[in-house]
Amino acid sequence: MESPLFKSLVETIIPTDINDICAILACGRPGPLGAGMHTAYGNRKNGFEDSIPQLRNTEDITGDTYNTIIYQEQCMLISKKVAKFDDSQSDSLCRKPLAKKKKKLMEIFRKCFIFGKKNCEPPKDYDETDENQPYYDPKGKYGKEILGGINNGYTYEELAEFYEKLKGYCSYLFNKSHSASYSVITLCTMYLKANYYTKFFAALLSMQTKEEKIDMYIKLLKANNIKIKCPNINISTYDFTEDNGDILYGLNAIKGVGVTSIPTLIENRPYKNIEDAIERVPKKALNKKVLSSLIMSGAFDFEDNNRYKLLNLMYDLRKDKDERYDENNYNKISCMNFEKDRLGTSVTYQSEWDKIQDKEQTTLTFNLIDTEVRKDKRGKDMAFLKLEVEGVEINALAFSSLYAKNISAFDTNITKSLTLLGKKDNNKFIINKIINRNLIA
After folding, report:
1. Model pLDDT for residues 343-364, shown as the tens digit of each residue
2. What is the pLDDT of residue 135?
3. Residue 298: alpha-carbon gap to chain centroid
4. Going by C-beta distance under 8 Å and a sequence separation of 6 or more, which residues neighbour residue 392?
5. DSSP for 209-261?
6. What is the model's pLDDT at position 379?
7. What is the rounded distance in angstroms from the CA atom of residue 322 to the CA atom of residue 312?
8. How far apart are CA 260 and CA 290, in angstroms?
9. What DSSP letter does each residue of 383-417 carry, written as one string?
10. What is the per-residue pLDDT for 171?
11. Helices 176-195 and 197-207, interaxial angle, to 10°?
12. CB within 10 Å: which end of the chain, N or C, has fewer?
């Protein structure tokens, strides 16, 4: 409901109850949109046009949607009332062929809907190519005989016109049960997001299994001035949680900390420091992989915020033979790389790239990682680049007009880094101009 399409539907329809939300969700599909049902629904609801039924005497079926047809069930009910289909036929001969665009079944539906169905052998002069006659079903494959709308007081013209309308957009109709279910979920999540913003996003983050989704939501929260905190071994729970208006990482979101370790880690806390944790937690729950992941993610920053130093301390306490880090080299980039590796995103710091808004033009210095030359539509060379800034790898494009004039600048054997003017576009960088370049020494 937050996409541009659905925002425009909300503005058109101006919902006042759950039925309108249900209708908006159903209208936002190719069929109803193409047939203008969203506009008709909004205009009729708000008194700008008369509510005229799609087919005579069907107001009792379509009246609650201002005589627009936006649900599969409405088509099924109309086939029952107008042509006297039974429940099974309304599904197998109406909903399924229209929904799945099965040409043969659609032709059968048209005959049954307009002229009816007879469970007997066709007459000797029966012409299979003639669409304007009853459907003959001698073996009763499609159930009982069907009266047909033309035998129930409707004219051929109005039935044929109605069928053409259905054929045009019915394949994209939602079924009402789905739309109603989604409406309830929509209203619940709207309420929670509006009134319990941080709790809502803490729950949403806890549900994610893909790092790119976590990264996307965290960037959104930061843009809305919600602070994200690294996990803390003494206060983090299994999931993301609200913490005084901020969101605290959950232990389960740390790559390398197994699900089986978390209950034991929580049970034995609080911990004074890493040494205390090593002494009191069984090795099965706090092995080298788990402890190093906790340190790299910031879960022991209360002891020292130099994570190189904490990892060295862990190696010393465990008497590991691992090569020690140079503690003096720990910096913003080191921290960001640890967090991206263990948490899927940088929490403590935000890279210069992440600070740039989509569609914003900027000048930034990148390391040149890789260049791939491909042909554009006109057969000219253009460059697809991999760039890096503060540990963030970025895909970039240099179109043929720019690439042709600066081929050597994009040569990874010559160029180390590039200062570029360009635009961030959907997390890619479109290069407009080369400001400067540094050569490989």
Report:
1. 988 999 988 888 888 889 999 9
2. 95
3. 30
4. 351, 353, 354
5. --HHHHHHHHHHHHHTT--EE---TTT--SS-EEETTEEEPPGGGSTT--TTT
6. 94
7. 9
8. 11
9. EEEEEEETTEEEEEEE-HHHHHH-TGGG-TTTEEE
10. 66
11. 120
12. C
Strand-pair category, 415-425 with 428-439:
antiparallel
**Statement: residue 391 has pLDDT above 90:** no
Q: Is 427 helix (H, G, I), strand (E, B) or coil?
A: coil
Show Cβ contacts of residue 207 under 8 Å, excluding neighbours closer than 6 positions: none
Instruction: Please name the amino acid found at residue 47.
Output: G
User: HSE-up of 86 (CA within 13 Å, CB side)?
Assistant: 7
Cα–Cα distance, 219 to 385 (Å, whole number)? 24
Alpha carbons 126 and 129: distance in angstroms, whole number: 9
State the average pLDDT for the chain. Answer: 93
Query: Average pLDDT, stretch 147-174?
Result: 90
> How distant, in Å, are the alpha carbons of 13, 219, 361 from that of 356?
35, 11, 8
Which tokens belong to 136? 């003959």
Question: Which of 92-101, 418-427, 432-441 has the least mean pLDDT?
Answer: 92-101
In this predicted model, what pLDDT tens digit does every residue of 101-150 receive, in sequence order? 777 888 999 999 999 999 999 998 888 888 899 999 999 999 999 999 99
Rounded CA-CA distance 65/42 in Å is: 10
Length of the chain (residues): 441
Query: Helix, strand or coil for residue 79?
Result: helix
- Rounded to 10 deg, the angle between the 18-27 and 176-195 helix axes is 110
Residue found under tokens 């680049």? 385
Q: Which two tokens stand for residue 6?
A: 């659905």
Cα dist from 126 to 29, 130, 143, 176, whole Å: 40, 8, 21, 39
Q: Are 172 and 154 in contact (CB under 8 A)?
A: no
Bridge-partner residues for 361, per DSSP?
423
- Over residues 206-251, the pLDDT tens digits come to 999 888 899 889 988 988 899 999 999 999 999 999 999 999 999 9
Q: Which residues contact 3 (CB under 8 A, 6 or more apart)?
A: none
